[in-house]
Amino acid sequence: MLPGSLWHPPPVRGGPPSPRGEKLGFCCQSFSDQAVGTDPPAERTGQRQRLSTEEATRWADSFDVLLSHKYGLAAFRAFLKTEFSEENLEFWLACEDFKKTRSAAKLASKAQRIFEEFIDVQAPREVNIDFQTRELTRRNVQEPSLSCFDQAQGKVHSLMEKDSYPRFLRSKIYTDLLSQTQRRLS
Predict the structure, then answer these.
(1) Dihedral through CA 119, CA 73, CA 4, CA 49, nearest 10?
(2) Which of 16-25, 71-80, 103-112, 160-169 has the least mean pLDDT?
(3) pLDDT at residue 49 in the model
(4) Apex CA 80: angle with CA 77 and CA 85, to 5°?
(5) What average pLDDT does this structure show over 49-76?
(6) 110: three-class secondary structure by DSSP
(7) What are phi and psi for residue 73, nearest 5 degrees?
(8) Fewer CB within 10 Å of terminal CB in the chain, N or C?
(9) Considering the chain, what is the average pLDDT of its residues?
């Protein structure tokens, strides 16, 4: 399993996590309450920064804005889990991590791991891509490069953007999160 697929939002503090708390609490806790992703300037000054309504609202501007925000990514992941389709996001994140690989020795093993986990027929977390893309990716992995997953990653990104993202914006997870950030302002 890839490191990016191991992180899950921490439960809300103060008792056993409720299903709702697990989905929303990670976004509305202060940064300094987070197990990961502490904001260094806030940590140094002792300030506690929280997700603002403006930030959460910006996620509706575009899918890429959502993916670029750590709490947006976490909320989208929680939503995909409810739809049993988090493998799409995990694959996309694995590809993003793969593109940062600088060691030629690690490139081949990482490419093989990603292929076996997400692309191969009957992979444990198989993503839904067409036969041609699967075969092109299979050939690309034989001689891996930083771009060997680009077509498959693009197809999965497009699928999430056109299918999952609009449902996320209408979901209870997102609407509750917006309500929660707005209630803090009142």
Answers:
(1) 180
(2) 16-25
(3) 61
(4) 120
(5) 93
(6) helix
(7) -60, -45
(8) C
(9) 80
